Amino acid sequence: MNKYFAIMPDVNSDLNDFFRKEYDIDVIMGHYTTPDGVEHPSVLNWETVNRDQFYKDLKKNPNAYKTSPANVEECYQAFEKHIKNGEGVIAISISQTLSGSYSFMKQAVDRIKENYPEAQIALVDSMRFGPGFGLLAVYAAQLRRDGKSFDDVVAWLERNKNHFHQTGWMDDLSFVAKKGRLTHSKAFFGSLVGIKPVGEFDYNGMTTVIGKCKGEKEAYKVLIEYIKRHIIKPEEQIIFVATSNRHANAEVYKKLIEDNIHPKAVYINDVYPNCGVNIGPGLMAAYYYGKPISEGLVEETKVFNEIKASIKE
After folding, report:
1. Is the overall model pTM greater than 0.90, yes or no?
2. Is 130 helix (H, G, I), strand (E, B) or coil?
3. For a Cys-Cys bond, which of 42, 69, 137, 222 suits 101, CB 3.0-4.6 Å?
């Protein structure tokens, strides 16, 4: 058995060409359908799709866009190419509460095990989506680069996936709510002029609003302090700042994180069509490794409210 093993997240990890090459990550692509009814293969760059036009059209007609994960056969073939080379496979899916990707990948993994009894293959539910999911895969690749074994990396992912945070805002939560990424009861926050609803991953990997800020100035202050209260060993960390067509905000946030948190590196990471269809325009959030997320976001909501109160004082 080759000691090398592949790290294989699905397309909802939003890992662009740079990250896939830099960390030797093999993404399992999917599909998305545009309003004209044409199904397209997933993309993780803007070479064939105009980013501004995509988000402009999506905002006008969100229900006309659809996404679908790689099917069982596509997953099987993606896994098999590594297994035939004697390589192991760690497959990682978007949270199974959000997509059928986990189910399809699981069926493909089971087929691999039947056809290749000696295969070293495992499937991990990331309990995350988008760049938060992608960051988890990057950490797995770093562990592999550091010489950790297949079993060590799988065990680390299972133990630590609930440590990956989302700290940022959405301009309009009604879009996310319609796509099932957020409870509808929270969507009204996004309709108030100047209000920035702040979202965090919950215990099960869904985004939940933990509070709201009045305007960008207050929001940036709260977000930076919130990260400070949750992040672990920032000097060793890579942080992603994700944006679905809010690059000016992302640049400001990146600089604030660099100046106040002092991580190893901060990267701005786009949200590409497969996740973009379900998130919509207006996301601006940081993703990082921190304290384990509490059930019901009790601790996180408490911290948010404490920070807001201290800023007002």
Report:
1. yes
2. helix
3. 69
